[in-house]
Amino acid sequence: MSLPPRVLTVAGSDSGGGAGIQADLKTMLALGVHGMSVITAVTAQNSLGVQGAWPLPAHVVRAQFRSVVDDIGVQAVKTGMLASAELVEEVAGLLAGLSVPVVVDPVGISKHGDALLAASALDAVRTKLLPVATVATPNLDEVAWLTGVRVRSEADLRPAAEAVLAYGPRWVLVKGGHLDGDAVDLLTDGTTEHRLRAPRHDNRHTHGTGCTLASAIASGLAHGQPVPQAVASAKTYVTGAIAAGYPLGSGIGPVHHGWNL
């Protein structure tokens, strides 16, 4: 029996199941890889927002990572919520010792506007985490937080991407989902540029979109796809998941991770 590629997510737990570790593992299953997890924080979270968040100690995160990597091995890694400067530095140090693709989703704030990363961690994300990224996947708010560049139109995507690339990732995918019109993202390594467009679906149930996209990219990379192909495939997958998103609770429901099954 052939083994599926193995992908590790290093992120926070979403008790409501729409984002974080739970979204990552659902995405990985849907895309044919074996998902594994290092939990960095536990949240009390539902369709209305984040009611509480508790980061795990750095030594607990390190123990989970070593347990998985040293025995099972990985073909790609995805990072999400890292909560604190200490955890950002710990995870960045662990990733620096790997020779596999790393997708960094620089999570700073939730869909509902709740902080998921301490303000003191900004410098660590810039100087420690982004340099180990094969692909960084910031949305427009995260670009502004990281670089000070504000994207107000598609024309602003290129300078935004260049500003993020200055911190060291090999590729950056600036997600333009908050712009008007079609959902357009810009993928570039500073030399090659790809614009990915998709129709915008009139569906408010989009919780977990960023986690899902980053995990889908990591899954494609684990399958051996080059970065542009992995990102394009992930864009197609997440667009379908958004279209099939469903109401859950009394707030914003999740995207449908199993829409393609």
UniProtKB/TrEMBL annotation:
Superkingdom to which the source organism belongs: Bacteria
Molecular function as annotated in GO: kinase activity
Keyword Calcium: no
Function: Catalyzes the phosphorylation of hydroxymethylpyrimidine phosphate (HMP-P) to HMP-PP, and of HMP to HMP-P.
Pathway(s) it belongs to: Cofactor biosynthesis; thiamine diphosphate biosynthesis; 4-amino-2-methyl-5-diphosphomethylpyrimidine from 5-amino-1-(5-phospho-D-ribosyl)imidazole: step 3/3
InterPro entries reported in the protein's UniProt record: HMP/HMP-P_kinase_dom, PM/HMP-P_kinase-1, Ribokinase-like
Pfam family, one: Phos_pyr_kin
Native source species: Streptomyces luteosporeus
Protein name, as recorded: Bifunctional hydroxymethylpyrimidine kinase/phosphomethylpyrimidine kinase
